[in-house]
């Protein structure tokens, strides 16, 4: 059970009754008694169809005893945006987001057929946190569930859990506001038992009791006693401190208990300790229940989000902990497979209405660990009941032990491979590695010499030998099928079904008639066909990607997923059992032997998915690379026939891919190695030790340097190498200074931002993959010229912001105009960006300047750019970790292409610049010029890689990065130091004078991810005393809908300003005045909700408008567009009932006088407005027509801050949903025609999805048609015009390459030249950008921009839906001065407009003209994303007629 957020929603009408009935069901439990111990697969939040498939194809064949599934009952719905809605039951009908009752029953039956028991996550402690509507369409109140529970069925009087030392409080009060069932009531117990009996009647075998800690053991025992049959229980009783009144041991008399301490301890040992200390791991290690009562796990859905255990994000470490769990004799193991996430609140991948989509382990959205652990499940089953023996460790992070004479495992959690001899306790033989690839040979003494790679494991067991088991050879009977299976497995079984009757898992052994083939003859009786799967007896299966193979009589071959019927004998003989002495004839044709390096990615195994030249791709995920090879490598030999090569991508079988950043790998004949993105053709076998490459590349020749202003172009001729040149290093020296070294992948380098009239000397050398470096070239000197003159300050363009459409770019990820300012930072290698040659700071202002015509050609007249101020953190390309608010980040600027240049050149093309600004927080290292906290640091052997040597003359400059070449550091330390800018200004070993951080420099109990001891005051935090309370807040946010969300830190990287302090206010106001002076046209305000509204209204907003007025005049101030991010990530009108946290709230002035002190005023305002609540907030008609008439809007109460339309954003899973929700909120917004409207962004997709929008091209087109014609200002996140990175995680920090996320580099798509002759009109384009501009959504958005620009009512008009029938249809009008524009719009479907003015209407899409004489116009329309916009022809305002040419959607 997690700490749920309270959910506030409006209860809907149409209540339905709910009656629990228990009747005879076709399903029956898999056994008549509670399940015996065995491995549980926790397929959390998988839908029923996917669970059924997994049981059949993976869990059953692998030997899993049970599957645990998500709560199946109907629950409150948040439209799929969150995962926790299913833990708020609405009724006990089986209508959940995972499927209906029929699908659930089918899932149970399928799992039982595979020999897998089914356990259900049962939520019986509570119901919901507030009334709403369920996934099944059932309306309910918090204490009223028609036909099920009334208020008398809940604990009264209501109270909140607050004292875990009081059992009554814990078990009789509400857990985070969830209505707490009175489980002491017999009536309630009977209804709960009825629900559980209903499930067992469908065949369910057991239950995981959610929140069992909050039900007294007596109540839970009484409920269990009411069940009509036996059922296995394991109970969620989270172990707290010894002072807690409720302990897990109190529940062992009822059933097993989920052992939470187990996963916490494993995290400590595997992440920050030494796994050698796991020797003897058990109750004496502080675990809360005995082994025979414990269900153990490395992670579950709560702990992976809360951080108390490891998670899939820990990569190989997480996998090793699971290997240990399955090998070690304690408890019943549970292997967890869930979905990947960036936002811990986000729900699983879902479709319309929040229904969970089918699990796809190959798309990166799911983590299918149950598959990776299949071999270890077989190990666990084989060694059950045996004792640990032959324990070995290296005193650190390598351990090995045997389990009796049945199994042996070695786990290396270290960073280097370990080779040694181990006593395994197993008989002599060769055994398959069940925890990875390859095999292990054990001699007659039971000893094996094994090399265990870093972050990997080896596990072998009796019965999993690599020696094939012979089968008797008998002549095939009539009605038979002879099956040949091509494989590199040493042993293969065929598991088959004839007329629905299958062999017992794992099937029957196949013979080995010749090299590379397995064979079995099967008696089909009278059947003409049968279904077949294959496995290696150790948990690895080939089931044709879940479809099974269908074979017929006679001879069939199965090779690389391809079935050939009536085939020739591939072993070249008609004999059913060829003589061993006959040498097989090799298959004719070309072959490619591919080696893939797994170690860097932490993969245990690899598949190759390939396409021979001129051929077809293999079926995803490809074929296993399972040929015997050495540690760290996977190998596959591929028969290509006449093909001369192939394209390939690789994956680990669990959804993680390496496809060469979307380009795939080109591989030729012969032996090829693929290592860390580098393809080496005609390579020696990597497992045969090569003589070390000690030959350096040749010295580059022809070095030239050319100065242009303060930029120097360095060029040279390429070097050669016996293996291959991998790059170059350019050394630059000024006078007698130390050389500064830069890296280049090509033979040119632009060095910009140099000092004017200064002589620089350059040298270049080449390097290869082995680290060999050539000698430097002879130095060539060059003198720079004059610096370019500073650009003149700009002036805002002005004009109503509603006339614009906005293109949103992350500057550092858009287009690289100058490579010399590219910087990867300290996380370049760890993130995987270095391997992709994709530094985090890649795009720049020059790139934006170069591509202004691309943006204009799309039709956009405003660009919203991410923050430009100088940032300071390990991963700050996004701009939200501001350190020097008075300085533009140097990684974005180059001479002649600074921020002022961008503003001026954009203005010259009629394009506005809206700058993202941050008032809420600074970087974790404070804000230069306001306060920079001193932190503890020490340059010892553990930490000197992190801390720069002190240099009084040095200052923080992210353009100057550590080169990783410090002779006083080890290679490993240099690698960690590489990319770090100077930080000697921050740290001190001695406690500085005036320090306020508590316990300066004392060691803590914590360790860094590298395993190093952490000290107090080493890292900034709000609670350490490190920051002065006058300037920074001193707490963490605990309630995101509470007052603390405005006065506490929201993230460890974001030091929260005390924005009610006058010194802080002046610092920020003065800083942002500098950018106003440069001529920016507006501010997008980041995290606006975390600053009290009264502070905005008193201080910051007036300061902005006053300064613009003084500088540029009142007209420019009126047109300056401020739009705030008031992040309400919910689907309701008011953010869970909290007005202070709702977007529209920030569009209003204060309506009461508060104390003069800003701190007191913020609290007074919060309490006052919260008490008034949603029902007493001001309303507005500014967005609405009066009938058909426009009226002058009343902005007297407007605060000055417009908003991002969070409600439409959250509901843009489909346009209709966004439209309905948008209309519902408009009366509470001061003027919704100014809302910034977008589908997705750099933070989230719709419904708070952690992935870029993946609704499909048609859905995108429909969303755009709505955004461009409905009220508000359309805003598009870069690349959405081509569905760039659709379905990719929005962000994963430095844990994965940027290229795999929604923040990938876009420049490759817009290389080439483009010229825009007008907004939405491209006169010429060449190169990749021309291809991009030809895409369907590009054409769509270009025409939408043309239409919108031509019709004032679409830009600034009020709207109405009265007298309008149609799904998305509305009328809009704008009247001002001589302008009078009236338009009728329908999107994607028919509409009828009644009561409209008579006259001639002309459609802007088709040019169709209609004359209305009776006030009615009916429009017929088909095509998702299509639209009609009929404009009334008025005197002085003629209808523009057809605008633009037909495209893929508007036609």
Keywords:
single chain; 1451 residues; alpha+beta; TIM Barrel; Immunoglobulin-like; 8 domains; eight-stranded parallel β-barrel; eight-stranded parallel sheet; 17% helix; globular
Walk me through what this model shows:
The chain is 17% helix and 24% strand. An 8-stranded parallel β-barrel has the order 1-2-3-6-7-8-9-10, surrounded by 5 helices. It has an 8-stranded parallel beta sheet with strand order 60-59-58-51-48-47-62-61. The protein folds into 8 domains: 40-383, TIM Barrel; 399-461, Golgi alpha-mannosidase II (Immunoglobulin-like, Sandwich), CATH 2.60.40; 480-565, Immunoglobulins (Immunoglobulin-like), CATH 2.60.40; 590-680, Immunoglobulin-like, CATH 2.60.40.10; 701-783, Immunoglobulin-like; 801-924 and 1037-1343, TIM Barrel, CATH 3.20.20; 934-1019, no CATH class; 1355-1432, Immunoglobulin-like (Sandwich). It starts with 39 loop residues before the first strand and ends in a 19-residue tail after the last strand. The relative contact order is 0.05. It is of the alpha+beta class and 1451 residues long. InterPro entries: A-amylase/branching_C, A-amylase_C, Alpha_amylase, CBM25, FN3_dom, FN3_sf, GH, GH13_cat_dom. One of its GO terms (biological process) is polysaccharide catabolic process. Residues 781-802 are annotated as: Disordered. Residues 696-787 form the Fibronectin type-III domain. Residues 1-32 form the signal peptide.
């Amino acid at each position: 059970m997690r700490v749920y957020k309270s959910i506030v929603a409006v209860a809907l009408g149409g209540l339905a009754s709910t009656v629990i009935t228990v009747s005879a069901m076709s399903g029956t439990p898999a056994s008549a008694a509670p399940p015996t111990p065995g491995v549980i697969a926790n397929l959390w939040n998988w839908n029923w169809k996917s669970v059924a498939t997994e049981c059949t194809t993976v869990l059953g064949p692998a030997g899993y005893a049970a599957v645990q599934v998500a709560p199946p009952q109907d629950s409150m719905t948040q439209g799929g945006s969150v995962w926790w809605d299913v833990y708020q039951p609405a009724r006990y009908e089986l209508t959940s987001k995972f499927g209906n009752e029929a699908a659930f029953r089918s899932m149970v039956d399928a799992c039982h057929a595979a020999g897998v028991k089914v356990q259900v996550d049962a939520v019986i402690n509570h119901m919901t946190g507030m009334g709403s509507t369920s996934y099944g369409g059932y309306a309910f109140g918090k204490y009223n569930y028609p036909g099920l529970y009334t208020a008398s069925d809940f604990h009264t009087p209501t109270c909140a859990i607050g004292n875990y030392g009081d059992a009554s409080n814990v078990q009789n009060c509400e857990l985070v506001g969830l209505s707490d069932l009175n489980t002491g009531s017999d009536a309630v117990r009977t209804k709960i038992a009825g629900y559980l009996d209903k499930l067992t009647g469908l065949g369910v075998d057991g239950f995981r009791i959610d929140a069992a800690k909050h039900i007294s053991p007596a109540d839970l025992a009484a409920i269990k006693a009411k069940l009509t049959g036996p059922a296995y229980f394991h109970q969620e009783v989270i172990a707290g401190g010894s002072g807690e009144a409720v302990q897990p041991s109190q529940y062992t008399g009822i059933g097993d208990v989920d052992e939470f301490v187990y996963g916490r301890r494993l995290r400590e040992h595997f992440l920050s300790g030494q796994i050698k200390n796991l020797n003897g791991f058990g109750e004496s290690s502080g675990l809360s229940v005995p082994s025979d009562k414990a269900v153990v796990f490395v992670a579950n859905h709560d702990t992976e989000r809360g951080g108390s255990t490891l998670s899939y994000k820990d990569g190989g470490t997480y996998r090793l902990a699971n290997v240990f769990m399955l090998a070690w004799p304690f408890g019943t193991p549970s292997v967890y497979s869930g979905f990947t996430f960036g936002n811990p609140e986000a729900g699983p991948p879902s479709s319309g209405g929040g229904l969970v989509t089918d699990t796809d382990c190959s798309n990166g959205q799911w983590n299918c660990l149950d598959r990776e652990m299949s071999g270890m499940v077989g190990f666990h089953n084989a060694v059950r009941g045996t004792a640990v023996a032959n324990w070995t460790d290296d005193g650190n992070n390598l351990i090995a032990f045997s389990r009796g004479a049945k199994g042996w495992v070695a786990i290396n959690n270290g960073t280097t491979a370990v080779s040694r001899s181990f006593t395994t306790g197993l008989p002599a033989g060769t055994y398959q590695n069940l925890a990875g690839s390859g095999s292990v040979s054990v001699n007659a003494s039971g000893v094996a010499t094994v090399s265990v790679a870093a972050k990997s494991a080896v596990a072998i067991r009796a019965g999993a030998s690599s020696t094939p088991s012979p089968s008797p050879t008998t002549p095939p009977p009539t009605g038979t099928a002879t099956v040949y299976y091509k494989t590199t497995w040493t042993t293969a079984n065929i598991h088959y079904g004839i007329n629905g009757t299958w062999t017992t898992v794992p099937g029957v052994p196949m013979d080995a008639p010749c090299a590379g083939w397995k064979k079995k003859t099967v008696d089909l009786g009278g059947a003409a066909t049968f279904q077949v799967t294959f496995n290696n007896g150790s948990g690895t299966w080939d089931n044709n990607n879940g479809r099974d193979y269908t074979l017929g009589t006679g001879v069939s071959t199965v090779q690389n997923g391809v079935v050939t019927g009536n085939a020739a004998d591939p072993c070249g003989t008609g004999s059913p059992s060829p003589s061993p002495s006959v040498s097989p004839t090799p298959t004719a044709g070309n072959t490619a032997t591919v080696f893939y390096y797994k170690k860097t990615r932490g993969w245990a195994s690899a598949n190759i998915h390939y396409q021979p030249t001129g051929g077809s791709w293999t079926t995803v995920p490809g074929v296993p690379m399972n040929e015997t090879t050495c540690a760290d490598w996977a190998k596959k030999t591929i028969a290509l026939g006449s093909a001369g090569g192939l394209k390939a991508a690789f994956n680990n079988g669990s959804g993680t891919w390496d496809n060469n950043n979307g380009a795939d790998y080109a591989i030729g004949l012969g032996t090829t190695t693929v290592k860390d993105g580098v393809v080496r053709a005609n390579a020696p076998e990597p497992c045969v030790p090569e003589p070390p490459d000690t030959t350096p590349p040749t010295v580059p020749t022809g070095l030239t340097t050319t100065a242009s202003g303060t930029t120097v172009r360095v060029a040279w001729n390429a070097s050669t190498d016996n293996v291959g040149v991998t790059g170059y290093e350019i050394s630059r020296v000024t006078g007698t200074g130390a050389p500064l070294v830069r890296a280049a992948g090509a033979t040119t380098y632009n060095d910009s931002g140099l000092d004017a009239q200064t002589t620089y000397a350059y040298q270049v050398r080449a390097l290869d993959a082995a680290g060999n470096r050539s000698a430097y070239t002879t130095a060539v000197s060059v003198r720079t010229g004059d610096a370019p003159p500073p650009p003149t300050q700009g002036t805002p363009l002005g004009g109503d912001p509603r006339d614009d459409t906005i293109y949103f770019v992350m500057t550092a990820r858009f287009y690289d105009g100058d490579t010399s300012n590219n910087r990867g930072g300290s996380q370049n290698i760890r993130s995987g960006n270095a391997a992709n040659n994709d530094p985090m700071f890649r795009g720049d202002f020059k790139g934006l300047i170069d591509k202004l015509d691309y943006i204009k050609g799309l039709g956009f007249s405003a660009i919203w750019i991410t923050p430009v101020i100088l940032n300071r953190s390990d991963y700050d390309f996004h701009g939200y970790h501001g350190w020097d608010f008075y300085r533009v980040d140097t990684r974005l600027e180059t001479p002649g292409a600074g921020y002022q240049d961008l503003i001026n050149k954009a203005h010259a093309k009629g394009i506005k610049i809206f700058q993202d600004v941050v008032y809420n927080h600074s970087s974790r290292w404070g804000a230069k010029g306001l306060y920079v906290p001193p932190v503890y640091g020490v340059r010892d052997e553990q930490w000197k890689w992190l801390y720069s040597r002190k240099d009084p003359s040095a200052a923080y400059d992210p353009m100057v990065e550590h080169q990783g070449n410090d002779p006083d550091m080890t290679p490993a330390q240099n690698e960690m130091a590489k990319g770090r800018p100077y930080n000697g200004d921050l740290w001190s070993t001695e406690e500085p004078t005036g320090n306020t951080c508590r316990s300066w420099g004392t060691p803590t109990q914590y360790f860094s991810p590298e395993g190093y001891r952490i000290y107090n005051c080493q890292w900034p935090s709000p609670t350490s005393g490190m920051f002065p309370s006058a300037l920074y807040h001193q707490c963490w946010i605990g309630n995101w809908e509470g007052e603390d969300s405005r006065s506490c830190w929201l993230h460890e990287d974001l030091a929260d300003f005390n924005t009610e302090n006058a010194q802080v206010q002046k610092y920020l106001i003065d800083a942002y005045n500098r950018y106003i002076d440069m001529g920016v046209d507006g501010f997008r305000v980041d995290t606006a909700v975390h600053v009290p509204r009264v502070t905005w209204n008193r201080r910051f907003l007036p300061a902005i408008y006053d300064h613009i007025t003084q500088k540029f005049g009142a007209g420019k101030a009126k047109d300056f567009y401020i739009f705030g991010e008031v992040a309400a990530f919910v689907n309701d009108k008011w953010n869970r009932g909290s007005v202070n946290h709702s977007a529209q709230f920030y569009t209003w002035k204060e309506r009461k006088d508060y104390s003069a002190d800003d701190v007191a005023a913020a609290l007074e305002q919060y309490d006052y407005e919260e008490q008034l609540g949603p029902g007493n907030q001001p309303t507005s008609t500014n967005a609405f027509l009066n009938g058909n008439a426009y009226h002058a809007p009343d902005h007297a109460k407007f605060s000055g801050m417009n908003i991002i339309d969070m409600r439409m954003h959250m509901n843009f899973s489909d346009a209709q949903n966004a439209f309905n929700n948008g209309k519902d909120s408009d009366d509470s917004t001061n003027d919704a025609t100014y809302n910034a409207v977008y589908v997705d962004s750099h933070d989230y997709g719709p419904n708070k999805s952690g992935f870029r929008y993946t609704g499909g091209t048609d859905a995108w087109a429909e969303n755009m048609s709505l955004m461009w014609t409905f009220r508000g200002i359309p805003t598009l996140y870069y690349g959405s015009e081509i569905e760039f990175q659709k379905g990719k995680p929005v962000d994963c920090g430095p844990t994965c390459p940027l290229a795999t996320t929604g923040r990938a580099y876009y420049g490759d798509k817009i290389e080439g030249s483009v010229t825009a002759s007008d907004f939405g009109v491209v006169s010429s384009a060449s190169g990749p950008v021309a291809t991009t501009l030809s895409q369907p959504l590009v054409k769509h958005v270009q025409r939408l921009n043309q239409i919108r620009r031509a019709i004032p009512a679409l830009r600034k008009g009020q709207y109405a839906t009265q007298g309008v029938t149609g799904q998305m249809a509305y009328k809009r009008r704008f009247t001002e001065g001589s302008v009078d524009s009236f338009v009728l719009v329908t999107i994607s479907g028919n509409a009828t407009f009644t009561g409209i003015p008579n006259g001639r209407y002309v459609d802007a899409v088709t040019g169709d003209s209609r004359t209305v004489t009776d006030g009615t116009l009916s429009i017929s329309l088909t095509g998702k994303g299509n639209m009609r916009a009929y404009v009334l022809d008025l005197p002085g305002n003629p209808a523009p007629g057809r605008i633009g040419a037909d495209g893929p959607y508007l036609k």
